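Hi Q.,

Before the meeting this afternoon, I wanted you to have the lauric acid prediction in hand. No need to reply - just skim if you have a minute. The sequence and ligand are here:
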Amino acid sequence: EGKPIKCKAAIAWEAGKPLSIEEIEVAPPRKGEVRIKVHATGVCHTDAYTLSGKDPEGLFPVVFGHEGGGVVESIGEGVTSVAVGDHVIPLYIPECRECKFCTSGKTNLCSVVRATQGQGLMPDGTTRFSCKDKQIYHYMGCSTFSEYTVVLEISLAKVDPVAPLDKVCLLGCGITTGYGAVTNTAKVEAGSSVVVFGLGGVGLSAIQGAKAVGAKRIIGVDTNPRKYAMATQMGATECINPKDFDKPIQQVLIDMTDGGPDYSFECVGSVDLMRAALECTHKGWGVSTIIGVAPAGAEISTRPFQLVTGRTWKGSAFGGVKGRSELPLLVKRYQDGELDIDSYVTHTFALDEINQAFEAMREGSCIRAVIQM
Ligand code: NAD
Ligand code: DAO
Ligand code: ZN
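Predicted structure with the ligand bound:
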C-alpha cells in the first residue's frame, strides 16, 4: 500500500485569480490508477479558459494542466499496461479499448469515465488531491500542474523513454490535435489544396500534417502576421491576412484557388471563421473540419445550400487520435525528425513561474510555454 506524497502544485482556488503554488498531498493510486511524477507540462488555452470562469463546467479549487509528460511513480491494483519507471503522456480522452466508442472503429471519443472526469473526480467519485484540509478537483483527467498527479491507466500513453518529456509533452494536446485532424479526421490526400485558419500551435500542426500527407498548396490565414514565418517553416506555401482585403475571406480564398480549397481547418474557435472555412471550400467535394473551441453556447450557421452542393462540415477532438495506440507513433515521428515539436517551445518556465506562462500565452509571440518541473 503506497503512501501519500507531499509536493508542490499550482492550485486555482477560484476563477479569475492567479494560480497559487502550494504544498499539496497526493494520495496513492487506487484500483486502475497510476501516480506519476510530472516532468514537464505545456499550458494550453483551455486551462486559461476554465481559469477565467467563462467555462460553465469549471470547478474550483482545482489543479489544471492537460499537456504533460512524466514517469510512473507507483501503480494501483490491477494495473498491467504500465510499470514503475515508464515514461507516459496523460490523455484527456482515454482509450479503454472495450466501450462502444472504442470498439466502433469510428471514433476516439472513449466515454467510460466521461461523467466523473467532467466532475473533476476519479471514477470512484473521490479526488486524490488535498490541500489545507480541502479536497482539490482533478482537471480533464490529467492535472499536470503538480509535481505528482494520479491518472487512470486507460488515460496514459506509454512512450519511448529516450524521447525528451519537455518536448513530447506537447503531444498531449495541441500538436496531436492539429496533425491528427488532417491525417485522421479529414484524411487529406496527396496533391490536395488546404487552408488553415489560425496559426497557433494547433494550426501549425495542421500545416505539418498537410505537408506530411503531400498537400500541394497550403494556405495559412491569420490576423497576426508574426505567425507567418513559423507557418512557412512548417510547410505553408503562402500566408494571408484577412485584414488586407475588402472582400470576405471566403471569397478571397475561392478566387486564389480556382473555386476553393479541397480542405479547410478552423483552428481559432470563432463561429464566423467556421462559416468562412466551410464556405470557402470547393463546390462538390470541399471538406471543412472544425477544431477550434467556440465560447460556451455559441452556434454556427450557414445556408444549407452550401451542404446541398457538396461541401461537408466535420469536427475533430484530439485529432481523432486514440492516445494509447497512436501517440507512441507520433513520438517516433518526432524522433525520426519528421514531426517538428522543438520549434513550438517559445517560452519555458519553472512551476512557481506558471502565472507568467499564462501571461505569455496572451502575447502574439507565444506558441507554447512549457513548465519544467
Ligand atoms: P492560439 O491562440 O495559439 O492560436 C490561435 C490563432 O488564431 C492565433 O495565431 C491568432 O492570431 C489567430 N486568430 C485569432 N483571430 C483570428 C481571426 N479572426 N482570423 C484569423 N486568425 C485569427 O491557439 P491554439 O493553441 O492554436 O488553439 C486553437 C484553437 O484550438 C483553440 O480554440 C483551442 O481551444 C482549440 N483546441 C481544440 C482542440 C480539439 O481537440 N478540438 C484541442 C486543443 C485546442
Ligand atoms: O467524450 O464527450 C466527450 C468529451 C471529449 C473531449 C473532447 C475535448 C475536445 C476539446 C478539447 C479542448 C482542448 C483541450
Ligand atoms: Zn472506451
